[in-house]
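Researcher: Quick test of sequence recovery. Tokens follow.
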């Protein structure tokens, strides 16, 4: 089981860990980016720094943070948003599949050189303004997270909540680790499941959950879809009904694995047709 939940700093995260951070100003972004990059340098990892600025401006920001040597040595690379993302022709909408094809090829080349791991600090705010942009970016986030379960790569994905408002939750929730207060739940990839859910999905989080799960649903190939909900502490009837309706529309069966009696009891009371609850072994969560 992957580490999941809310965190209060960007320190102490290794390969295969995917952290989403909603920041309120540039000072906060810089502080967390510095924490994360510093960890990567200590691990001798290759680091990518992506932002909505020119290469020169990104290098200057890194120098300001004390990482000029890492940039000079080539251990830290920079990429403006327009160079990092692959877009659908004639649009500002990310192409998730094209991004994954290019990204995995680059990662495999780097790892073949003996690089112990790779990490990225990515500010995705510039490509998350519209619902269409977030539709595509959500799929890319989930596909990236799935890749992280198999390769020694990690990322700190940041979004400016002052700019995006509540819409930032739609993307932040697609990380197993999120900063405290940013979003109440996590939806992420897990090796033995279609996806995992953790945290608490209350009425305030319903929109973010519905947007996120409908966006990543087409990426699920299983007729019998297992959702690891061992870390899900609270859910309302709305989310369970939404899962049931989506599964029924697609002719799928959802198996919700949880050790939480409240979730099990709620599912029983609702009399769901296409969602079945299975008891999961008690485990300690990070």
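Model:
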């Amino acid at each position: 089981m992957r580490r999941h939940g809310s965190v209060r700093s960007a320190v102490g995260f290794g390969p295969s860990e995917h952290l989403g951070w909603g920041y309120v100003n540039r000072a906060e972004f810089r502080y967390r980016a510095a924490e994360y990059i510093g960890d990567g340098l200590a691990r001798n990892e290759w680091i990518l720094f992506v932002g909505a600025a020119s290469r020169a401006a990104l290098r200057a920001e890194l120098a300001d943070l004390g990482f000029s040597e890492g940039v000079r040595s080539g251990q830290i690379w920079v990429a403006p948003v327009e160079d990092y993302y692959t877009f659908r022709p004639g649009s500002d909408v990310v192409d998730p599949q094209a991004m994954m094809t290019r990204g995995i090829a680059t990662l495999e080349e780097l790892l073949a050189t003996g690089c112990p791991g790779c990490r990225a600090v990515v500010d995705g705010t510039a490509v998350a303004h519209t619902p269409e942009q977030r539709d595509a970016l959500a799929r890319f986030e989930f596909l990236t997270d799935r890749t992280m379960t198999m390769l020694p790569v990690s990322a700190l994905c940041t979004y400016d909540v002052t700019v995006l408002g509540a819409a930032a939750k739609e993307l932040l929730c697609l990380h197993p680790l999120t900063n405290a207060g940013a979003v109440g739940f996590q939806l992420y990839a897990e090796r033995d499941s279609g996806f995992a859910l953790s945290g608490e999905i209350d009425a305030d989080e319903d929109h973010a959950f519905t947007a996120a799960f409908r966006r990543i649903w087409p990426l699920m190939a299983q007729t019998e879809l297992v959702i690891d909900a061992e870390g899900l502490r609270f859910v309302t009837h709305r989310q369970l009904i939404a899962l049931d309706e989506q599964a029924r529309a697609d002719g799928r069966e959802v198996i919700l694995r949880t050790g939480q009696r409240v979730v099990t009891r709620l599912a029983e009371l609702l009399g769901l047709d296409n969602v079945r609850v299975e008891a999961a072994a008690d485990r300690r969560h990070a």
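The chain has two domains: 1-183, 190-280.
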